[in-house]
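User: Structure please.
Assistant: Input sequence and predicted structure:
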Amino acid sequence: MIEKRPDVSVSIVTYNNADVLKERLTTLLPIFKASDVSKVFIIDNASTDGTGLILKDFSINESLINLLLLPSNKGFGHGHNQAINKTYSKYHIVMNLDTTPKSCNIISHMTQYMEKFNNIDLLSPLVRFPNGNIQYLTRNEPTVFDLGIRFLGPNIFRKRQEKFIHLNDGYNHQQRIFNATGSFMFFRTQTLKNVGGFDERYFLYMEDTDLTKKINQNGKAIFSPDFEVIHEWQRGNHSISGAKLMLRSMVKYFNKWGWKFW
């Protein structure tokens, strides 16, 4: 008798991704199917470049896809919450369109890990750039100072910045994580629902930090380098509009959790 794997669902939010959509879905769907993912929610945040039409055509012959075309763009967290509210899986993955599990069995192995360690509510993998370099995302819970100096470049208060991203001790062993990346988050679904999913006050940026903190209040978020994903990391906060969004989200975060300056 073959043991049935626990249900795993996935949510991906799209916005004006028409130029890469088919390529990305052609890459991701075989990986999801190999891991017996039960449902893939694709939530489009009212794209204006034809992304919605491409998704409609693509999903006709893909029963795995559950397409949600939203009438307006209310942000990253709001989009994912539409899927979180609809899923009844045991585990749920929040991920970006430009993130790829390094191998077809990563999701299955993460499921097995969560089945073995039932005290873990959020599992965060090692994230690499397409060239193989590590993205330093095992970060501390932020302070105003830590976030502020990151706008000034990597050489300003270098030691403090290296400490913030755990440069010397954050990527070769399992550890508690306090600031997980939203590019790929593997959740115990019931815990995710219990904390109310993403706080929709954040349009973009800080929503993953906020959610990690909520998870850690009564549960446990863990980073493990045993699981790897590739993320292209489109760094919109380096634009003026992106920086403004980031600053607004920072204010909302510290207003909510308290202004820790240092």
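The first strand starts at residue 8 and ends at 14.
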